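Dear support,

I submitted the protein below through the web form. The confirmation email said the job was done, but the results page showed an empty box. After a refresh the structure appeared. I'm attaching both so you can tell me whether what I see now is the final result or a partial one.
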Amino acid sequence: MTAPDLEQRLKQALSKSGGASSDYDLNRDVTPPAGRVLKPAAVLIGVRASSGNVILTKRSARLKNHPGQIALPGGRQDPDDQDAIAAAQREAQEEIGLAPTSLRVLGTLPSHVTVTNYDVVPVLAIVDGPFDPIPEAGEVSEVFEVPLAHVIQAENYIIQSRRWQGRDRHFYTVPYGPYYIWGATARILRALADRMA
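What the results page shows now:
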């Protein structure tokens, strides 16, 4: 797929209607806690124009939350961030050295609500400027890429489960080579896959 074709397909995906997603999508019997307050956050789905690959990270094993998990670059929206797009750009620069000048934001997907009470806005962007990953050692142990073609194929997703807070919790996975992509990251990518089908 050429870079213009890739960009066109991504823009078409953004133009499709569809609602928000949630970690509760596959767990209809689980009720979110009463009175919860959702914290705003954003992640960057950065797609390289040259290869059509999605940039992902492996979180540091030293982190208190989600150690060693595969994630999209991103995090909590700070009060100084103008919006979710600014938050995703700032986090990508801090975590992996991806400068805002090296990407073109195409838009945002509907938000994804996590069981940890984050309201995460996925920001879709083309990475067409210089980018040599510089992982922030305290947060990221590895930066790697997965072909967009892999994560937009619905048949590559598997529903699995684990015990969590005394019950089985079901979630999407989309394994790729040695990487076990699951949970919110897989659900966000699955939402993109559904729009690109």
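Response: this is the final, complete result; the empty box was a page-load delay. The longest helix spans residues 183-196.
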